[in-house]
Fold these 4 entries.
Entry 1:
Amino acid sequence: MTDPPDPHPDVHPDVHPDVARLHAARPSRVADLVGTLADPAVLVLATTLVVALRSSGSVLAGLGWTLLDVSLCVGAPYGVLALLLRRGVVSDRQVVRRGERRVPLLAALGCVLVGLAVLTAAGAPRPVVALVVSMLGGLAVMTLVSHWYKASFHAGVAAGSGVVLVATLGAPASVPVAALVGLVGWARVRAGRHSPGHVAVGVVVGAVTGVLVFVPLTR
């Protein structure tokens, strides 16, 4: 009996498994679009904006805290990632290979720590500071988990942002939040970026961090 034909003959057996999964996935414009629109930077920006506007005395103040928060906690880490990408430390912007994630994660932790210090010293509203502490906790857990297992950042940020939005806007936000998390998880698997296990771990980390960190700090 002969072996069945390889459905993906272009994927070499020696290719990194994370890269092989990505190459083996069938193209999907919908999944790619969801991944782009639900990029962690976009979700953090949107969540920070909601939290800052709800906790500030004016729209202008809320926009100012959002700009400061996102610049330090999102812009700076992405800047470091761009530098690492240019130097060949990581292979792509989404860091497909798990083994390449340690350096950018540690850099992101450092940036968020600096952001937390600056925002606290500047007198940022308590919910904004709580959001940054929650981000810091999620990053720390992701860094630890990534030593052994690859978890989806898209799913983790979607779940963590979802908890923050429900805590800020109330129970009615839970339905669209759940739909968003499910859609992001599907898109990451469909695009070959992650396995279902990677998505599940990301969701657990993001949701648990939000519940255990953001919610208590804002009560």
Note: The first helix runs from residue 17 to 24.
Entry 2:
Amino acid sequence: MGQILSNPIIDKEIDSGTDVLTAFGLCAMQGWRMSMEDAHVCAVDVGSENSKHSHVAYYAVFDGHGGSSVAQFCGVKAAKVLQSQESFQQGKYAQSLIDAFIASDREILRDPLLRNDHSGCTATTMLVSKEQQRLFCGNAGDSRTVLSRNAIAKALSYDHKPTLVSEKSRIVAADGFVEMDRVNGNLALSRAIGDFEFKSNPNLPPHAQIVTCVPDVVEHSIDYDQDEFVILACDGIWDCLSSQECVDLIHYGINRGDMNLEQISSRIVDVCCSPTTEGTGIGCDNMSIVIVALLKDEESVEQWFSRIRSKKHVANVSFEERRRAVFSFYDFPKNDADVFAVSTKKTDEHGNSYTSNEDEDTEMDRNEPPAGRSQMDMFSLESLLGANGIQVSQGGNNVSYIHGSALSEVLASLGGGGGVNQAIDEENDSDEKREKLEEVKD
């Protein structure tokens, strides 16, 4: 699961937009992870300036791993890289997605800083062509794009896992191996932008490297009587929901009549954010989701909502019920209004329990540190120390405990190392050892 915070960061990036072809609602949240490594693109028209062809919409979700650098690069540059491809300017959209993925790798390698960066990102992308009345989805990795077709989930991408026969064959042929379901025992996915340590064979083309950036591309002819919306999301969402469950939740939100796409995407993130770190590990990842409505000619977003509601699709499972089902191990409050309160209940090494609750609708509470504690205490300090293998956990009486093998090494270098771990774990430390702990915290 990787390093996680003691409390999730539930501030959200939300956005929405519309054009003549599509409308979208976006939500992205850092959650329990030490940093936000997702990025996205919602470009409702990328075709008009650089292509002789008519309106083209472009959407993408980039899920970073090993750092945020490559994902952030793609979030900023991906649309321009796509527009610069000759295949895109010629209206060859399926090929243009492949060309853009490969060109993104090349652009990163030209950057003097990023070329030595060890991060990477999965990418799931979609082009919608008004002229061709088609969807084009390019995917590399385990993010996913799903179409709602008469309320039935249709895959527009396929997860690239190292255990798939086709993926494992490429990995082994490139002198790699799959161990513990990971590429070379390390990477849990087999296609990504970046990750150049797995693309170092100069005798192999991009599509044959141990990890390749080359996407699979799925095309789909749009039937506006049946095709309703498309979901693009990172694996933080798909770890918690199946494709059909996500489609059902969106229809539930549409049928309520009081939610827009932005609000529905935000509530799905709430459904998927784990209430505690003591479960299976799902729900503790960064989360990003984009819901894209497919608009008929001259159809407004309000008319689209009315049209989808008129189909009367049955979506009986509410957001609250789905959250209870996803995290069935957790004892949620009986009142549905409290189901979405992020709550952690842990027991520290001294048997003290503590709880932290945040209401997502209270902006002031989100921006102000808890009473009696500085903002640096649990978030900034954790980020600073966590990168070096030092963990911070909260004990009773508002006392923070710092632990981890890296801390032992630091204290050992300061004072000879004898019995350091024991000194940290015991509640009644000597004054001298407490002073050393305070030096590290400072």
Note: The chain has two domains: 4-325, 347-441.
Entry 3:
Amino acid sequence: MDELFFLASKIGWAFLSPGNLLVFLLFLGVLFLLFNNVSSAKRILIPTGLVAFVIMAYPVSDYLMQPLESRFSTPETLPEKVDGIIILGGGEDLKRSLSWQVAELGMGGDRYIGTASLATYYPNAPVIFTGGSGSITLQNTDGEGALARKILTTIGIQSERLIIESKSRNTYENFKFTKPLLPKTQGNYLLVTSAFHMPRAVGIARMQGINVIPYPVDYRTNADELRVFDFDLFDHLKALEPAWREWIGLTVYYLTGKTSNWFPEP
């Protein structure tokens, strides 16, 4: 069942990604033009062009992303003691790392900065990384776990403090495979992941009976006063793609019983 869920999620996202959807619709409109069906082409190309222009001109994606990022905030006061620091995979660029044989970080690289800060604050706490490969085509590699070990030791965390889980392919499997590795099943663990991903991660952790204290990093939205017309399509898609994916993920995980709440709250 987990295998089917993984494959379905990857195939589904190929058609639901906002960037891909725009290209598919433009392609469909061009096909109608090629077959001289001008009226159908207009019905597709005009709204698609308008939506693409709005996304390019103004960071409307912030309005989709902001509720996710503001759901959980960094603790005002850190607890005196924790039983470990859990960092979710996703900050690595696995394909480029394999291509160039170097440890490359992606947009979620802030997860490592947050983890390094917490590891210094709690010098005796184990650092637990969980993440394999979320790509269908990169399942026969060492995955993110090998990269994580290299990156975490490079930023100064001793190898003996590390617990690495490298089989998981999605957030549900992150916690499913990590739970047996935890030093204390009922312990308290700081959870480091991207702010937009934190609601779903917390919901799954709770469903698995893992006590986590959210420590969000990797924010993607702008402050209200900095949100302006800037005609930067690439930058706007960097927020729109993960935000749209996360709302879909929250819905699917809730409907399939992987979380008990659609939009988990503090």
Note: The mean pLDDT is 92.
Entry 4:
Amino acid sequence: MSSSSAETPPPFLVAMLAGGLAGTSVDVTLFPLDTLKTRLQAPGGFIKAGGFRGVYNGLGAAALGSAPGAALFFSTYETMKVLLVKNGDQPDAVSHMTAASIGEAAACLVRVPTEVVKAKMQTSATQLSLQATIASVLKERSGSWLSHITGGLYRGYGITLFREIPFAMIQFPLYEYMKLTWARQQNLDQCTPVQAAICGSCSGGLAAGLTTPLDVLKTRLMLGADQHGTPYTGVSDVLRRTLALEGQIALWSGVQPRVMWISIGGFVFFGAYETFKTLLMTSLLAH
């Protein structure tokens, strides 16, 4: 596959704005599905984590972090993709994987604390405010202010990257390949936003299913303790205790809503991203 298609790469600011708008669109629209997925993955089980009640708990945290997280990802991804494709000797798929991995590392600086707070609010028996939840997370670790932040708000940064990078390495080469192939079949420079949305939905759903075990480990580590309230000490501890107490099937908890959420979310997200990108590029060229 050659990616030297005629599709014009967006400027940094356009990618940032389009990504931020797309991220907010999908996170707010599909938040209840994310809540159900998180509760299915919680150590205590779906009902204890809240069941079908309060499916919008944590929406404030998600809304606060979705725009900057998605903006960071797409501005980094689009910039690195152009640099790697133009200046590298590797296949384009490798360039897309590398660019997506770098983008995820940047986005997780915002995404991880957002997800820690959001997961706590989604599974808490008592409905705390956003500020109270952040304070509660910070108090879970003793020591210096740095340990409060790294051990609290950034708890799970490593496992989140461990989940996001394989996900991105599956999704984005497929997404770029499907877009390019579809455009060429129509003798066009690029496919339409709706076609790009379909490509994002298909590639995202496949990547979501394959990386579900990593998502389960990430969710449980962020929640901080098992069903008996015993704190986890790290990813290996989460994996060991999950397998011992619940078996391998627990690693696939929430796979159905995760695939559904990311498939629908991929359609909304990439459709919104390509639409906003086209509108911003058209406005930029008009001026």
Note: The chain has eleven helices and no strands.
